[in-house]
Specification:
The chain is an alpha+beta fold. It folds into three domains: 115 residues, DNA Polymerase III, subunit A, domain 2 (DNA Polymerase III, Chain A, domain 2, Roll); 120 residues, DNA Polymerase III, subunit A, domain 2 (DNA Polymerase III, Chain A, domain 2, Roll), CATH 3.10.150; 118 residues, DNA Polymerase III, Chain A, domain 2 (Roll), CATH 3.10.150.10. The strands form four sheets. Strands 14-11-12-13-26-25-24-18-22 form a nine-stranded antiparallel sheet. The chain has an eight-stranded antiparallel sheet with strand order 6-2-3-4-17-16-15-10. Strands 5-1-7-8-9 form a five-stranded antiparallel sheet. It is elongated and about 80 Å long.
């Protein structure tokens, strides 16, 4: 069997797929890429047994079909150093030898049998299907990933929860201290359905989804999801367990509203945070008409900081405490120039929404308060 393809196209696909492969694998074959040649196309697959990613490349020339596996380090290291040029693969499927011919040289290495590579679990016939724009999905994943937990006792909190209802598709993440909820009103389903995407496949998707649009099809059942995008397919096992009722923790009546420039607030937080207690990282907000005062102190080291910002505020004067790094993360993951911080009282969560919402979407972020010692 013999085929030719572009070195840079191959290198870029392999480097994307290599993120699936674990440093330690339960099966030795999982250290390999599966190459499948058929109908003038090369399908490359990488797997860690729970996540399977496939990428399809057109071939310049092709003589014969066949399957084989090749060590990810061997092929990755050999092609990433090559400038753009045609690579010709010659594979002897009897002796499992591979010869790669390039402009000024040749590589020789061995292949392994494709039969040993684990196959993916097919999605059941009663799977739910949604279609979403790739740039929208990319933005939603980017906006929610930071809020996922790393909780061994409650693994259900470690993923991104997709909640499909007759009104919208909500994409949610929470670690118990902060929460992100994106609602997309252009995607809905008469029959409610949901799935919990683990962090690793979410990060893999973030790396491959185009910012220039194009449809992504997500098919999911109780245990698995299959995500089809322009350059390939990602199949993954979903997180099991019931996701908490995220809507119940979002306070509904927040009479105190502050509108403030997002970048100014991030800058002020960064300036006062170094003076906060290292253990609590507490930033105190005192807000009243037209003014926000941020303050921090560390009694043990006799350090403190205070900064005033202008803002629009309607409501009662209030003091409330937030964890500085968590609030900075939330603000960094919003795109609007201005944000509205909605407050009920110092013991209830603060709701942060962008003044300018993405088209057909409703983005909301939430942060739990910290106790203030007056």
């Amino acid at each position: 069997m013999k085929f030719t393809l572009s070195s840079t196209a191959l290198s870029s696909r392999l480097s994307t797929l290599s993120r699936v492969i674990n440093s330690k694998n339960s099966l030795p074959i999982l250290e390999c890429f599966l190459f499948e040649v058929e109908n003038n196309q090369l399908t490359i697959t990488a797997s860690d047994s729970e996540n399977v990613m496939k990428s399809i490349l057109p071939l310049d020339t092709c003589d014969g079909d066949g399957n084989f596996c090749v060590s990810n380090r061997t092929i990755l290291d050999s092609v990433k150093e090559l400038p753009e040029q045609p690579l010709t693969f010659e594979i002897d499927l009897t002796n499992f030898t591979i010869k790669v011919v390039y402009q000024n040289g040749v590589y020789n290495f061995t292949a392994q049998k494709a039969e040993e590579f684990p196959r993916i679990q097919p999605i059941t016939e009663n799977a739910t299907e949604i279609v979403i724009d790739s740039s929208v999905l990319n933005n939603n994943i980017t906006r929610t990933l930071f809020a996922t937990a790393q909780d061994e006792l409650r693994p259900v909190m470690n993923g991104i929860y997709f909640d499909l209802t007759p009104d919208s598709l909500a994409i949610v993440a929470s670690d118990g201290h902060k929460l992100v909820r994106n609602k997309n009103f252009s995607i809905k389903n008469d029959t409610p359905a949901s799935f919990n995407l683990p962090k690793k496949p979410a990060m893999l998707l973030k790396g491959v989804l185009g910012k220039d649009g194009g449809d992504v099809t997500i098919k999911f059942d109780d245990k698995n999801a299959e995500i089809i995008y322009s350059e390939g397919i990602l199949s993954c096992r979903l997180l099991a367990g019931r996701y908490p009722n995220y809507n119940s923790v979002i306070p509904q009546n927040n009479p105190n509203k502050m509108t403030i420039d997002r970048r100014s607030l991030i800058g002020a937080l960064r300036r006062v945070l170094p003076f906060a207690s290292e253990s609590s990282q507490l930033i105190r907000f005192h807000v009243e008409t037209g003014k926000l005062e941020l303050s921090s102190e560390d009694i043990d080291f006799a350090t403190s900081a205070k900064e005033n910002l202008t803002c629009e505020y309607s409501g009662q004067p209030m003091s409330i405490g937030f964890k500085g790094p968590s609030l900075t993360e939330i603000l960094n993951n919003l795109e609007s120039d201005e944000v509205v911080v909605e407050l009920a009282d110092p013991s209830r969560a603060g709701v942060i929404v962008p003044v300018t919402q993405p088209e057909n979407e409703d983005v909301l972020m939430l942060i739990m308060p910290m106790l203030l010692n007056d």
